[in-house]
Amino acid sequence: MPEMETSPLSLIYDGSFEGFLCAVFEAFERRTIPQALVPASRPSQLLIGEQIEVETHPNRAERVRNGIIQRSSHRNASLVHVAFLSELPGVELLLLRYLVKLFNDPNGRYWQNMLDDEVFELVQIARKVKKEVHRFHGFVRFQETADGMFFAPIDPDHNIIRLLARHFRARFSGQQWIIYDTKRNYGIYYDLHTVQEVVLQNHRIDFNAGNVASEVKALDEDFYSRLWKEYYDAVNILERQNHKQMTNLMPRRYWKYLPEKNQAGKLK
Fold this sequence. Notes:
Blueprint: E1 5-6, E2 10-13, H1 17-30, E3 32-33, E4 36-39, E5 51-53, H2 58-71, H3 74-84, H4 91-104, H5 117-139, E6 143-144, E7 150-154, H6 161-171, E8 177-181, E9 186-190, E10 195-198, E11 205-206, E12 211-212, H7 221-235, H8 243-249, H9 261-265
């Protein structure tokens, strides 16, 4: 494959992973590394020069994804997806440089070379995202609504909500639930059969406090909320408090929607 040259071109995609893969397709077709590859929601990052809005075509996205798998593995394709979900500034160009090297590698082992700058940085970013996913397996707190739905707001650093689906579907398969990312204003809904993405319109949720409105809350929801706080008090042995270790395991930025946060806030 001929080398790709850098250019003052800026590629704009729709913000989805499929849209990003189509932007990669566009860059390869033009044989260029653009100066910017950004979602349409972040136009302020654009620099001067030609700007092209890349349309999302499922077939093109699938071709790029299959190409990644053929050049490496399903695990590596998943790693690229997870790193993309970090939403860190500049991650798209990092991934593009990584994919250029991957597709130009004649041996098919580039992706395993941790001495390469792009490989090392990509793996580190993916680890951060996976670490946050693991943390939210324990930080999600559901509230029951009057119609029997269980609702849990979250506010993660990375766009991890899709990565939570498998865990909570397996753990709470017998009830309908929604886990909602209040920062990105979308969530995943489990209807006892499938998990699908949802956007709540005219929602009755206080996104600041994370509380379901009292008129739609189940009668016993306050009881369970108090029960959770009491449980926290019961297992919290004052003489053995280690606030530093606690904040390491449960960083304050994740306390926003935890019912026990008031008790945790006393530990100073």
